Amino acid sequence: MDISSGLEDVYIKHTGLTSIDGEKGILRYRGYNINDLVEHSTFEEVAYLMLYGELPTSEQLRTFKNSVEKGYLLPDYVKQIISSMPREAEALSVYMTAFAAMSASESNFKWSPQTDKAKAAEIIGHAASVVANANRHSMGLQLRDLAPSDSYARSFLEAALDRKAEQGEVRVMDRALILYLDHEVPASTTAALVACSTLSDMYSSIAAAIAALKGPLHGGAAESAYTQFARIGSPEKVDAWFNENIVEKKQKLMGFGHRVYKTYDPRMKIFKKMATDIVKRDEDRNILLTAEKLEERGVEQFGAKHVYPNTDYYSGIAYRAVGFPVNMFTALFALSRTTGWVAHISEYNESEPRIMRPRALYKGPGPRDLAPVSHH
Ligand code: SDX
């Protein structure tokens, strides 16, 4: 009997949601290739697909959008909590706090297949309003609910950035929302499932997922990858930085490596193309060129070990070019992944779930009698 370090190759559920081919670098949602979905679908269509199993008719899509838009309205106490947070608080922590607070009104939560899809839509709407207001708060702006528009991406962008969004920016946001929407059962989704397996409510399960997503080995990697590029400063400085920090000091190259992918993460290729198409400012272009040079050096060094760039490598450059600060990157990941989390929670609840209760292999002291220790 041995423990599986990092739960490697441990299967915790059946799923019909997402399949990953780690050898070939293929990602599919409900059987559709991620490249096709990013090219031809909108976030709302893909969110519907994940919750209901099929792409929506226009009637189904309209009804779904309406129920998500109802979630744009945040209870006043949630807005007060957001505005009471420190201005420089990381947006992800604001999101976690708001969702933990909203679990307070879920005490008589009773999961059922009839209600969970409506609850999911409400949560998807609430998530957008909370994350947008986290950014408004950090900019010292008055908090406000999202206003319905032609898309979730646009409603989110215009509230978060407090300005009209160009079509190109809306497309980038919409695609980013699809790219991060789900990824089977990484650490954060597993945390959500452990919570919901005790019949805890959906808001608490999302708060558990956000807590797990925060670390730089998982969702926090987009911020730490971007910080790496900024610290290097220019493409010419990549080699010296790499040799000193990654080769000699054996630091991890952030945005590289993956438990499942043993080749390029398909999402990284799409984010790289989006970043290339959208960067305009010289500062952003310099960061992109530095990232490309670092990617080349990283693959040269780690390719033989099947360590390649993952989804978090270029995503921050695209977010930055749209106008988000670095400390919003993980919250933008979480916003998108909220749909994946509620889809997995629904799927798990429908499967007659058992409480998750693994074991630990004891290797402490054997049985021994207690001789009271005198302290005087
Ligand atoms: C996400 O799981 C998901 O699906 C997550 C995600 C999702 O959509 O939900 O895809 C999103 O979190 C992507 C990953 C973002 N994290 C980072 O970019 C942080 C840097 N990456 C590493 O910390 C690491 O690659 C992990 C955490 C992603 C995976 O960890 P594993 O599977 O435990 O891999 P490991 O640490 O056992 O590494 C195996 C080998 C080691 O070499 P040896 O000791 O065997 O010689 O590969 C090396 C590692 O040293 N390695 C790296 C590396 N990642 C692995 N070496 C340098 N830099 C890296 N980034």
Helix content: 55-70%
Find the CATH superfamily of the largest domain. Answer: Citrate Synthase, domain 1
Extract low-pLDDT stretches. none
Mean of residue pLDDT? 96
Protein architecture, described:
With 376 residues, the chain is mostly helical. The chain has two domains: 227 residues, Citrate Synthase, domain 1 (Orthogonal Bundle), CATH 1.10.580; 102 residues, Cytochrome P450-Terp, domain 2 (Cytochrome p450-Terp, domain 2, Orthogonal Bundle), CATH 1.10.230. The protein has 16 helices and three strands. Strands 1-2-3 form a three-stranded antiparallel β-sheet. Strand 2 and strand 3 form a beta hairpin. Helix 3 crosses helix 6 and helix 6 runs parallel beside helix 7. The model has no long low-confidence stretch (mean pLDDT 96). The site of s-citryldethia Coenzyme A has 20 residues, from loops.
Give a quick set of tags describing it:
376 residues; mainly alpha; Citrate Synthase, domain 1; Cytochrome p450-Terp, domain 2; 16 helices; 56% helix; binds s-citryldethia Coenzyme A
Secondary structure layout plus pairing:
Layout: E1 18-21, E2 26-29, E3 32-33, H1 34-40, H2 43-52, H3 58-70, H4 76-84, H5 91-102, H6 113-138, H7 152-161, H8 167-179, H9 187-196, H10 202-213, H11 221-232, H12 238-248, H13 266-278, H14 282-302, H15 315-322, H16 329-350
Antiparallel strand pairs: 1-2, 2-3
Bound molecules: s-citryldethia Coenzyme A.
Write a compact overview of the structure shown.
This protein has 376 residues and is an all-alpha fold. The chain has helices at residues 34-40, 43-52, 58-70, 76-84, 91-102, 113-138, 152-161, 167-179, 187-196, 202-213, 221-232, 238-248, 266-278, 282-302, 315-322, 329-350; strands at 18-21, 26-29, 32-33.
